[in-house]
Design a protein that fits this description.
The complex is a heterodimer.
Chain A (H helix, E strand, L loop, with lengths): L2 H17 L1 H32 L15 H8 L1 H32 L6 H13 L2 H12 L5 H8 L11 H29 L3 H9 L4 H29 L3 H6 L7 H11 L4 H25 L9
Helix pairs in contact in A: 2-13, 3-13, 4-8, 4-10, 4-12, 5-8, 8-10, 10-13, 12-13
Chain B lengths: L1 H43 L2 H4 L14 H7 L2 H34 L5 H12 L7 H11 L5 H26 L2 H9 L4 H12 L1 H17 L2 H6 L8 H11 L4 H21 L1 H14 L1
The chains are: A mainly alpha, B mainly alpha.
Chain lengths: ~300, ~290
């Protein structure tokens, strides 16, 4: 194809897209939403990347310092604790949520009396604002009055207060997250289970497949799409954990997000490395999503 | 005879399975609602009972002190109003821009539809914390730190994908014939949208509104970053601070948590069927 004809062809689709009043109308209709998203979310990301290479403060734009902020970030023990807490929290809580969520989804994937009650129970923890549930759980772990502190101490699982031990604090935070989001995971997986036609199972049963074969050969492969969507969604959500750590840990439990927050609102000295950490979170979250899409083969097409 | 015993054994095992199943369901329901019930109990007992060891299972000495402290707290009252304003305005803006965009995506043909949908989807996976520093600088420059606008703007951006996603799913379920009929009768695209689609889609739009409202009501990061002043802070920011104000008044902290959560729980229980279909619409199709 010559360059002239290619140009003509390109101008052709351009004319077809924007010359057609119906299509032009469609663009006008999506434009405001797209603009809002681009201006308020994507533009600041670029600005954040620029900031991370400068010695700016909240009030003054600084000069270019290369990778200094990143070096400082990786040498900061607070950042490293936040990173390890975030990774442990994400991996453990999403794994547990997936196992429990799948179990619940398989169990309630049938018609039974009281189904509405279960659905309502599923939605209750989901509807809680995360910070408020963190406050509630903190009350239940409070030494002297907390039911869970009392029970755990009486049966001898722990010897001291949960709220003053960083490891126990992280374990408790994982359990709270599992309590809050397992039902949601179950809901998404249940929706996936309900579109698997019953005849597939009938056929397998007639062919003599046992319950394990049916699970591993039929349910899991057919549920793969729903599993990937639910797990990716939860992984990225857990990875940016902020409110639970902030309120339940009363600022003593570090995550990547609380580290960035400190740089912006609490410690001026941490603004530079905080910006570097913000870029770090963005890039790594993007890589996680890419991994799900490219390596695990998650479908992202939204067209019917 | 033999077949009868076999059948009898079958029923026996099935009823045992049923019992186990309902035990499982009961445990699940109990675990889900336990924290709310327990914290409610903490809020209605006297201080002595609150600190009793071992803790009482059922409340015995009732007291309204915690509730009157919280409900009489002017910061808390202000925070409830702030939360309602922020969530309400966010919902209205999201529905306005979201329904227009969702209609175009669900119903009209255009070349960059895939790109637009990917862009919108990308936001729901986007870590909000990545942009708080740049936004803080820009909002300071514009002078909207400590105003509702700062939080409404950021909440809108992060709720909009949810709004559009849900509305696209709802709009796609509506019959196309009706619009075509309206257009044959001489209606423009906008008229078809306003007179035919909007009324038909009302239940879906309503569900979307509830979910968007809950999203904004529960938002914490942006509010905690951009709002320093109690006059504009929503409940999500004020309640964790109660822990420092009412240091050992755990009863009041409990009462405040219940006040904020119960309306959402009631909303969810009333509209559970619709909310579940809304929440799973994207996941199944995606």
């Amino acid at each position: 194809m010559t360059s002239a004809s290619r140009e003509k062809k390109e101008r052709g689709w351009f004319k077809e897209e924007f010359g057609n009043p119906e299509r032009r109308m469609a663009y006008y209709m999506v434009l405001p939403a797209v603009l809002i998203i681009v201006v308020i979310a994507f533009f600041p990301v670029l600005y954040g990347v620029v900031l991370s290479f400068t010695d700016s403060t909240v009030t003054a734009f600084g000069s270019f310092v290369g990778l200094e902020n990143y070096v400082e970030m990786f040498q900061d023990p607070d950042f490293l604790v936040g990173l390890s807490n975030t990774v442990i929290f994400t991996v453990v809580s999403v794994t547990l949520e997936f196992i429990f969520g799948l179990g619940i989804a398989l169990a309630v994937n049938r018609a039974f009396r009281g189904r509405g009650l279960v659905r309502a129970a599923i939605l209750v923890p989901w509807a809680f604002p995360t910070v408020i549930s963190a406050v509630m759980w903190r009350l239940m772990f409070q030494p002297g009055i907390g039911i869970f502190q009392y029970v755990a101490q009486s049966i001898g699982i722990i010897s001291g207060p949960v709220l003053s031990d960083p490891t126990l604090l992280l374990i408790a935070a994982i359990l709270i997250d599992v309590w809050k989001t397992t039902p949601f995971m179950a809901l998404l997986l249940l929706a996936g289970l309900q579109v698997i036609p019953g005849e597939v199972y009938e056929a397998a049963r007639v062919d003599g497949a046992n319950v394990y074969q049916r699970f591993f050969r039929i349910t899991l492969p057919l549920l793969k799409g729903a599993i990937l969507v639910a797990v990716l969604f939860r992984t990225l959500d857990a990875y940016r954990i902020y409110d639970l750590f902030y309120a339940f840990g009363a600022k003593e439990l570090q995550s990547l997000s609380t580290y960035v927050y400190e740089g912006v609102r609490i410690s001026q000295l941490q603004f530079g490395p905080g910006n570097a950490a913000a870029v770090f979170i963005f890039v790594t979250a993007f890589l996680i999503a890419l991994f799900f899409i490219k390596v695990l083969g998650m479908r992202t097409s939204t067209e019917e | 005879m033999a077949s009868a015993t076999a059948a009898g054994k079958g029923t026996g095992r099935r009823s045992l399975n049923m019992v186990l199943f309902y035990v499982f369901v009961a445990i699940f329901v109990f675990v889900s609602v336990f924290p709310l019930l327990w914290v409610f109990k903490m809020s209605i007992v006297t201080k002595t009972e609150l600190f009793a060891t071992p803790p009482t299972i059922l409340p015995q000495d009732l007291s309204g002190d915690s509730w009157s402290t919280v409900l009489g707290d002017s910061t808390f009252q202000r925070a409830l109003i702030n939360s309602s304003i922020i969530s309400g305005v966010t919902t209205v803006i999201c529905l306005f821009f979201g329904s227009i965009a969702a209609y175009a995506i669900a119903r009209m043909r255009f070349r960059f539809k895939g790109t637009v949908m990917t862009l919108i989807l990308a936001i729901s996976f986007f870590p909000g914390v990545a942009i708080i520093a740049p936004l803080f600088i820009q909002f300071t420059a514009v002078g909207i730190i400590d105003t509702y606008a700062a939080v409404i703007i950021t909440d809108t951006v992060f709720a909009l994908p949810l709004t559009i996603w849900l509305l696209v799913a709802f709009f796609r379920e509506l019959p196309v014939d009706l619009e075509d009929a309206a257009k044959v009768d001489g209606a423009t695209t906008i008229q078809a949208f306003r007179k035919v689609i909007v009324p038909l889609a009302a239940p879906g739009v309503f569900t979307t509104a509830i979910l968007t409202f809950i999203f904004a009501w529960n938002e914490f990061l942006f509010a905690n970053t951009f709002l320093f002043d109690e006059s504009t802070q929503p409940v999500t920011v004020v309640i964790p601070n109660f822990a420092t104000i009412y240091t050992v008044d755990y009863g009041s902290q409990a009462a405040a948590s219940v006040v904020v959560t119960v309306p959402l729980v009631i909303l969810v229980l009333i509209f559970q069927r619709r909310i579940v279909s809304g929440l799973t619409a994207g996941a199944v199709k995606g």
